[in-house]
Amino acid sequence: MLNLEKMQKHLLDLGGTYMLNHARRCLVIAKILAEKENLKYDEDILTFSCYFHDISAYKPYRPDGAFDHAEESAKIVPALAAEYGITDTGKIETIVEAVRYHDKRGMGLANETRLVRNADAVDYLGYIAVARDFSKQHSDMTKAVAALKKHLNDFSALLELDSAKVMAEPRIKKLELFLREFEQETFGLY
Ligand SMILES: [Fe+2]
Ligand SMILES: [Fe+2]
What we know:
The protein has helices spanning 4-37, 43-52, 69-83, 89-100, 111-122, 127-136, 141-158, 162-185. The chain is mainly alpha-helical and 190 residues long.
């Protein structure tokens, strides 16, 4: 049984509520998608992968210079999984796959991999995407809008499951509307 409280504290210490609640939302969304798609999953694998898929983006795990955060996170999770009492090598392999391919369309075979990737994509679309990018770039709205446009494009392209597409559709519309209205309201000055 995973120590959820300890995992949540770990994420909170690394990246505040931004990181913690992204991880928690990922898990909530992944479970909704699993139910709609009738996909079986292992509770520990899905939970652990959702919680730690972005871990390399945060110090002290963050490497210097440019890096592929999914690839780097995949290198970190085996030791971390052991730390949290996951000893089954098969489970660890699946966690590594889910983390490694969480931003690589169509890659990996496990249900958990597809669930994490599609859930992560849904969580970067809609009002939540606006909040995430503006909070990250709180003193540079030009950068926030550029990031938002890129995320809209990149994460829409990662949606594979029909249920994820259905869930994302209104989010994408809201995000497109936001971008249009924001441009108008600000006269392009932001
Ligand atoms: Fe990520
Ligand atoms: Fe993520």
